[in-house]
UniProtKB/TrEMBL annotation:
This is CocE/NonD family hydrolase. It comes from Kitasatospora cathayae. One of its GO terms (molecular function) is hydrolase activity. NCBIfam families: CocE_NonD. Pfam families: Peptidase_S15, PepX_C.
């Protein structure tokens, strides 16, 4: 264990809510005679097993630096009481506000609370801060999770898989070592209460998140949260952001910056945290800093689609270019949420470019540095049916290699379509060409429109606007550097890999059937034995299929199995979930199945069927 300013203690406690429900919490505290600020991480991700390894690294580190670091399971999850709800719903926020009040009134807390959250919990942290801004002094949000649509199109990637994981996590029982014999009736009550939020997730919904306290936002380039992070910076004068070369999550490299943030806002220590650039970002090979966002060093450069960018597809007798892509366009998109594995990254885009209409620049005479949110402003031929406009920005090397920089989707009826691409940071070398590739589908990221006739584009009234950062922006600027944290030793979790591990990402083309099938397996697969004897075995397969010329053939399915064991107690439970999603011309059709087993015997089964009207 590294040496820290404070010795620490760890305690498992139960936090009472006003309705009598108790939430499971783990508290790491510094050994101190003085009350200290509290840092709350409030999540549905089961502190007893799923997040135990991460918790055991960062929370003792925070405690060693003088904070009461508190990890709390939300209602109906892990060892907490009550029945589960949807992440971020009104009950979860009400409970969270009560937890903050409870913490602020502990004898070991000085009344100041900071909030920490990753993914969906990162979004919840911001919403909670808006509930009790007088108590919450600051927040750190990592990769905050957004809605279930992309430019108005319903997500296919991640949506049904996330739904499956949501139900599976809520269906898992509490630990008998913590709850004794009460674990079983608690588990059965949870199972009976479950209702998948399919209708709510398929609806457009409101994805706005209030920012009411100083926020440090952290994300990795390529994570879907990056655009939200830049908007947060633009809207909040007290916000700061780190966007780096990281996968989804809170990287350990960022922990010292979060500590500087807490020290400034919760202790009043001048750590220089607010003097740092508003945005510190990794651009291709180096860290850069921009003092404000929007940055005065970034300007919008326009590329006309019949000028600086050109395509070979313009017909001589018609100013319109027709864009109609095969339904499997998008198979080389890479992971929607990157988790740091090789298959997460999108491969060479030449196959995708061949299924798209491409507008290329001449070779660049000097490097172009991009930082921000590109926008494609396109003029379409008006139509009655909504169309799906997909824009990809690529850098094409002298050898023809096409590297994806960013992409965006818009569902529209035209005629003016403004496609906002995801925030990006990249240096395109001299001699490379910029390529805007347009397609009419992007499967399996988003569900294809029922009508596959595509759309007609007028290049003479269309433009690509790029956020170009001045190449001399860093001249004379203070270098951006980070201190490496000295964290506790990793939790001694023994990982047993599957004997026949599935590929991370595999695609099969059935030529005779004109069918494309893709299967994904997450990094969480395998068996993990925790130091206290708890065994968690997890296996997941997500599959997509589509026929080349049939948009209504699209189908998505996730099979997810989690088994929990305590061999010393003879405790053995399994939760199996399956979600299947498809669509016809007017509806999404969802079938979700759940089975729960105890010692191999089925104790609960249920199937939910939903038919939800589609908007496009």
């Amino acid at each position: 264990m590294p040496s820290y300013p404070f010795h620490t203690t760890r305690e498992d406690v139960r936090i009472p809510l006003p309705d009598g429900t108790e939430l499971a919490a783990r508290v790491w505290r510094p050994v101190s005679d003085e009350p200290v600020p509290a840092l709350l991480e409030y999540s549905a991700d089961r502190l007893g097993d799923r997040t135990a390894a991460e918790d055991a690294r960062r929370h003792p580190w925070y405690a060693g630096h003088g904070y009461a670091a508190v990890r709390v399971d939300t209602r109906g999850h892990g060892n907490s009481g009550g029945l589960p709800g949807e992440p971020g719903d009104e009950q979860e926020l009400t409970d969270g506000a009560a937890v903050i009040d409870w913490l602020a009134h502990r004898s070991w807390c000085n009344g100041r609370v900071g909030l920490l959250g990753v993914g969906a919990a990162g979004t919840t942290a911001l919403r909670l801060a808006a509930r009790v801004p007088d108590t919450v002094g600051a927040a750190v949000t990592a990769c905050p999770q957004g809605g279930h649509r992309l430019g108005g199109a319903v997500l296919a990637a991640d949506l049904h898989a996330r739904l499956t994981a949501l139900i599976a996590d809520a269906a898992l029982p509490p630990d008998p070592r913590q709850l004794g014999d009460a674990w079983r009736p608690t588990w059965l009550a949870r199972l009976e209460s479950l209702e998948p939020p399919v209708e709510a997730w398929l609806a457009a919904g409101d994805t706005t998140v209030p920012v009411s306290v100083p926020v440090l936002a952290v994300a990795g380039w390529g994570d879907p949260s990056c655009s939200f992070v830049l908007r947060l910076l633009a809207e909040s004068p007290t916000a700061r952001a780190l966007l780096g070369p990281w996968p989804h999550g809170l990287p350990e490299a960022a922990l010292p910056e979060t500590l500087r943030w807490w020290d400034h806002w919760l202790r009043g220590v001048d750590t220089g945290a607010v003097k740092e650039p508003a945005l510190r970002s990794w651009i291709s090979t180096r860290w850069t800093g921009d003092e404000a966002w929007p940055s005065p060093d970034v300007r919008e450069i326009h590329y006309d689609l019949d000028g600086q960018l050109r395509t070979a597809g313009t017909a001589s007798d018609d100013r319109y270019v027709h864009v109609r892509s095969p339904q499997h366009t998008g198979l080389n998109a890479g992971a929607y949420v990157p988790h740091g594995r090789p298959a997460d990254q999108p491969p060479d885009q030449r196959e995708e470019d061949g299924r798209s209409v491409c507008f290329d620049s001449l070779p660049l005479p000097e490097p172009v540095e991009l930082l921000g949110i590109p926008v494609a402003r396109l003029r379409l031929r008006s139509g009655e049916s909504p169309v799906q406009v997909v824009a990809r920005l690529c850098a094409v090397g002298p050898d023809g290699t096409s590297a994806l920089l960013t992409r965006g989707v818009l569902t529209t009826t035209g005629p003016d379509a403004e496609v906002e691409l995801a925030a990006c940071a990249a240096t395109v070398p001299a001699g490379h060409r910029l390529r805007l590739a347009l397609s009419s589908v992007y499967w399996p990221w988003v569900w294809p429109p029922a009508d596959d006739s595509g759309y007609a584009l007028d290049p003479s009234h269309s433009v690509l606007s790029l956020p170009v950062r001045h190449l001399a922006a860093d001249v004379g600027a203070r270098p951006v550097t980070f201190e490496a944290p000295s964290l506790p030793d990793p939790l001694a979790v023994h990982v047993t890999e599957p004997l026949t591990a599935r590929p991370e990402h595999i695609t099969v083309h059935d030529i005779g059937r004109h069918e494309w099938r893709t299967e994904l397996s997450p990094a969480t697969d395998g068996t993990r034995t925790h130091p206290d004897g708890l065994v968690r075995d997890e296996h997941t397969v997500t599959a997509y299929r589509i026929l080349t010329g049939a948009p209504l053939s699209a189908q998505a399915r996730t099979d997810h199995t989690v088994r929990l064991e305590r061999p010393d107690l003879g405790w053995d439970v399994t939760v199996q979930t399956r979600t299947q999603l498809r669509c016809d011309a007017g509806h999404f059709i969802s079938v979700m199945q759940l089975r729960a087993l105890e010692a191999g015997s089925v104790v609960f089964t249920r199937e939910w069927q939903h038919r939800v009207a589609r908007e496009s």
